[in-house]
């Protein structure tokens, strides 16, 4: 009989042989070559259309000042969703490190098999209290929360009535559900009402909207939406990715901003709330229980890693303990917006929201403007068609509570300089010297 030792040797030789063949082979078939050519063609098309999205490599932590590969100097960062400056906050980092030690890197499991720790339950409770909702369920991202909600809540006899400019993840989530779909013109309450009338024979009705629209910094007209919801017997769902933690008097979001209540909130942990990753649905306990039973991105995807949960949990603590954090962000936002407006720029969006789109109109101007700003040490992003409508190109400036007054002033000054240098169609009513005198802007 073959000895166990010889048997193991034989098997391991066979494995080594296979591994050698695996790592040295190169698959090359006609089908693969044809697909590669197609993809190449498509990639060229994206480049030709001017919609190619490059990725700059950041070589530092996220923060108001960053380092970018290829540049020696500090870059002032005005394009992250790090609204409260918590992404690299020492206490957030410490909480993450501690959880890594005590709870490990991850659970190697989905929640319902063996992936739930007290950390997860604690964060869900904390979020429910934060939003004054009955229960909360965590997801790996808000994209997942949006992908997993509608299919569970709505069946073929129901209706979802959605703002046409809702985030891609809401649109995808709605595509996955069997409810009748209605789409109203962006923030157009007459059109929403008409759609509610058209949906009147449906059983459950759900109005779905971003709380704040990230391209425009504009806020959904929630008082009218909730009034119409009440009148036509519809639930109201809001996506609060650009509101949670900082919008409204104590940072509870768009519902608090208007002093009213909505039925369901989805939001992210990947922006103001520590910036790592994760999303959630907060709402009635029966809905959350059903999501735990049926929501596919929850059931079939790994549990959130404990360090990520601990970072987000610490971010909630910091906001609850420091109500001044959202106030600091509002002060910075008002400083930036008022100086830019006085200088003759058009800044769209809600006057109190830190997403500040500087409207330039021309697509080429937006991209050269953003490049010029980066050369000057300010990181902002230009957006053009098809991300935003034709003729509405802009650079989007995002303010953080972590920016100092000097940093805000520097951004204003450099935007002004870029505008002057560009010799393009912006009419600046106030020149740099005058601005300096008006506001004691800090020297460049
Ligand atoms: N909803 C909105 C409005 C967003 O802006 C984003 C992120 O860009 C998401 C959902 C997705 O969030 P997450 O990054 O957590 O998947």
TrEMBL record:
GO CC terms in record: mitochondrion
HAMAP family: 2am3keto_CoA_ligase (MF_00985)
Entries under PANTHER family matching the protein: 2-AMINO-3-KETOBUTYRATE COENZYME A LIGASE, MITOCHONDRIAL, CLASS II AMINOTRANSFERASE/8-AMINO-7-OXONONANOATE SYNTHASE
EC number in record: 2.3.1.29
Keyword Transferase: yes
Protein family (similarity comment): Belongs to the class-II pyridoxal-phosphate-dependent aminotransferase family.
Keywords: Acyltransferase, Pyridoxal phosphate, Transferase
Catalytic class of the enzyme: transferase
Keyword Acyltransferase part of the UniProt annotation: yes
Entries under InterPro entries matching the protein: 2am3keto_CoA_ligase (IPR011282), Aminotrans_II_pyridoxalP_BS (IPR001917), Aminotransferase_I/II_large (IPR004839), AON_synthase_class-II (IPR050087), PyrdxlP-dep_Trfase (IPR015424), PyrdxlP-dep_Trfase_major (IPR015421), PyrdxlP-dep_Trfase_small (IPR015422)
Necessary cofactors: pyridoxal 5'-phosphate
Annotated GO MF terms: glycine C-acetyltransferase activity; pyridoxal phosphate binding
Residues covered by the Aminotransferase class I/classII large domain: 74-412
GO biological process, any: L-threonine catabolic process
Stated name of the protein: Glycine C-acetyltransferase
